[in-house]
What we know:
The chain is of the alpha+beta class. It is built from 17 helices and 22 strands. About 45% of the residues lie in helices and about 15% in strands. Strands 15, 16, 17, 18, 19, 20, 21 and 22 form an eight-stranded antiparallel sheet that branches. A four-stranded parallel sheet has the order 8-7-9-10, with helices on one face. Helix 3 packs across helix 12 and helix 16 runs antiparallel to helix 17. The radius of gyration is 36 Å and the shape is globular.
Amino acid sequence: MMDHVNENHQRSNNNSTTSNLNKNIPSNPSSSDVASTSPIPPPIDNDDNNANQLLSTPPVTIVSANTSTSTSTPTTTTSAAPTTNNNNTTTSTSTTTTTTTTTTTTTPLIFKLYGGPETLRRVLLSLGWVEWSADFHQEHYYNLMWRSGHFRLSEMLGATSLQRVNHFSKSGVITNKGKLLRAHRKARSVFGKTYEFVPTSFLLPTEYTKFVKTFSEQETKRIWICKPDNSACGRKIFLIRDLSDLKYDQQVVVQSYIERPLTIGGYKVDLRLYVLVRSFRPFECYLYRDGLARFGTQKYNESVDLSNLYAHLTNTSINKHSRTCKSNKDVIGAGCKWDFLQLREWAEKTTGIDWNFLWARIRHCIIMTLLLAIPVVRQEPQCFELFGFDIIIDEKLKPWLLEVNCSPALNMDEPTDRRVKPALLRDTMTVLKHQNISSTMLQEASAKGRARRAANEKQGARAKNSSQRARHRNDRSKLYTTAATTTTTTNRNHRGGRGRNSSSNSKNKNRNGSSSSSSSIQTESSATSESTTTEMYKHMDFLAPDIGNFEKLFPFNEETTKYGNAVANVADDMEMQEKIKDIVSYMKKFEKILLSQQRKEILAKRKKMNENNATGKTMAKDGRNNVQINEEQVKAAAKLLQ
């Protein structure tokens, strides 16, 4: 009877031990598997949304922004020898600890290309992304949608704030040559010569009469370059010197040709700069520190035949077909491209060009151009755009904007492209800060987006009505003020009161004296502030963490951050113009600081050279050339601020 009780007691202990073990190990373990590591797959939720997500994007563990984590507990197996108690009952004790490994798998980021560049596909696949496929993914389940051309508005609004689309609606205001010309003219008439960085241009056939008048008034026949209004890659571009050569079958832009450009080794060169706009409202954009210097493949001079496009144009799509493209050329070597590291080394070591000064002026030109798009572009949080700015430098080192490309070429024709473009795309993905998504998250973000658009439309309608009322009130007040002023002036003339006039004159003198003193105080304070900020602009560090080789274009400090945020929720056109005017005024102030800083450096160099000459020391020829080049830079920059 006692043996039967002990046997039942032993069975209950063994059953409890077995039940505890079954919580941590798979069913039917073998004796050799007790002490081994047995990872357990994560449970699958039966929710419909999660099921659709698992079907559309099977879980894959990748090494990228989405990392998998694992937690393990060590396994210990302890066995004790059998012991005999006083009742002659044999018992055995065993302690078993198993390892539980929890693996968290995340879905990879998904990209959707519509005729996108092959370079982008390769870069994203190398980063662990997965290309969207109709067989495995839902229609709107993606992180990035990229298209070389523009999207339809429905496609753009179909994306949520958790996704990214590589174009803004109505960004053609700066990428279309005709629209850019109109917007630039308007800004030039409002803000003055700070916008004088686009060559004289006309839109034909609309402005044919104006062009003919300007053409007939020129003292010597200049060269004009004709470009189709909405084309790229140098297609259908031709040059003219006589009106008889002007023949076109579509809308074209006729532009004054930069006849004395900066040349390297006798070859014409222009710059392709990459600008990433994350948002127009608020205004946030970045400038890539590397880029392409594109060369003509035949030597340039003013007497070269106008039909020789290999000498006059720097488009890679044209010059790659030249016979001399792959041959070793003076200074520039083989090919038709440099990166900016090569260009800067040549500029500083060979010619003494102040690269920081030139780069600051290029930054100013790009910011002023992007400001043209703020009132027009439809702002959506999912949109971004990578622009390609084409800028040419003349012999006085003044930058001129040629055009802005909405889809800059990302194909790799030369080794220089392989050094620049893949790194550019990787850093672009870093700035965009993609995140994991799910079907539920997309549905919630889509609902919030619709509510936001409805609220913005109501706010815009209210702002428009209030602005119209304010204008009517201002017009009425102006009429009343004009009438009252006329009546007062008439009464004074009839009375002929000299005493009042003399007293008013004395008051005006006092007021003028006080105003002059206050203006002198303001001048001194502005001079003091200018002197404190003089050393910051030219050599400012615009780098920031988590943006790769990009640098902050705008905003770049606390003040510009305030100005950039101020345009975020402006619905009235007049108020928007005031906000943009504030940004332009601030940038003009920075340009003046830059100019004064450069003049001080030139004076210091000139003084040092004069001291060396007085003491009998001869300065190197390169040093004198450096001073002369920098003075030309200052003279060209001063024209922008007059």
